[in-house]
Amino acid sequence: MYIAREATKLWRKVSAETAAELQLLLEKWQLLLAGLVFQYIHGLAARGVHYLHRPGPLLQDLGFMALPELGQEKGYLSESVFTFIFISFLLWSFHPFIYHSKRFYTVLLWRRVLAFLVASQFLRIITFYSTQLPGPNYHCREGSKLATLPPPNSALEVLLINFPRGVLFGCGDLIFSSHMIFTLVFVRTYHKYGSDRLIKLLAWLMAIIQSLLIIASRKHYTVDVVVAWYTVNLVVFFVDKKLPEMPDRTNGLSLLPVSSKDKDGWMKEELQLHKLDSRMRDEVHKLLNGNTVDPTDRRQRVQMNGKHGEDMNHAVSDATPNGT
């Protein structure tokens, strides 16, 4: 019986949250779809630069000198950390569907996240197409068959981007690291909208570990990681200032005004209520003073003859003891 009762409560929470999120999705779907489409455009651009990549000797790198090389057989470590960060953030972003405590709407959160990703990835595309560096990853070095791509036989071969092999074994898209874009966007988003201070500290620690593992795995040069750190943080800072702030759900209210139209209607309603409340107070003052003249004129007469005002108040009070 206890399990059935709790399951019913959980189902009600999920149903109510789904209804609210669907309402937002119907309004914001264009921006969300544009962000998802740009993820494909980013992958297409990374695939295209692989055709321009030419292997060569590794560049001198301070990070390579400081960090020991993990080797090709341990390259999964950085991917494992990234996968953990990605899945953890994904699950956390959907926790309002289950948990009672809610601080944001999932649709609005991912709208902001995709805006951060798109802005950062747009800058990344411009950067790695400007100058092609010899890739430090093992499959991008001289002698590897995957270091260069033969000319495509058809446009379809380019458009399909050979997913996921083309993403995992790409070369040339170096400055700056795509893994660090996702990691820093996720960490900064949780830092702002998350509630657990310990998890925030652990998230930043994971971002640092991820950076070191990428360099130690020789998947990127140190400059790729360093540029990602200050570029993504600046992008998130400035884009976040331009976006409207999400409604705070900690006060327990249901769907707050999330569009300019809803917000204007809500403000007009508040203004009308304020005017009505002021008009009612003026009427009460008139009734208590036994006249219907303008309130400013009434205040002048009370000041000129305070005794008369007191007598009138007593008379009204004696005549109507119940306030009617």
From TrEMBL:
Instruction: Give the CC-aspect GO terms.
Output: membrane
Keywords recorded for this protein, A-Z: Lipid metabolism, Membrane, Sphingolipid metabolism, Transferase, Transmembrane, Transmembrane helix
Q: Which stretches make up the Sphingomyelin synthase-like domain?
A: 170-238
Q: Which GO terms describe its biological process?
A: sphingolipid metabolic process
Q: Where in the cell is it found?
A: Membrane
Q: Where is this region: Disordered?
A: 305-324
Indicate how the chain sits in the lipid bilayer.
Multi-pass membrane protein
Q: Pfam families, per this entry? A: PAP2_C
Molecular function GO terms recorded? transferase activity
Concerning InterPro entries, the annotation shows: Sphingomyelin_synth-like, Sphingomyelin_synth-like_dom
> Which parts pass through the membrane?
76-97, 109-129, 166-186, 198-215, 221-239
PANTHER family reported in the protein's UniProt record: PHOSPHATIDYLINOSITOL:CERAMIDE INOSITOLPHOSPHOTRANSFERASE, SPHINGOMYELIN SYNTHETASE
Give the family from UniProt. Answer: Belongs to the sphingomyelin synthase family.
- What is the protein name given in its UniProt record? Sphingomyelin synthase-like domain-containing protein
Protein species of origin: Urochloa decumbens
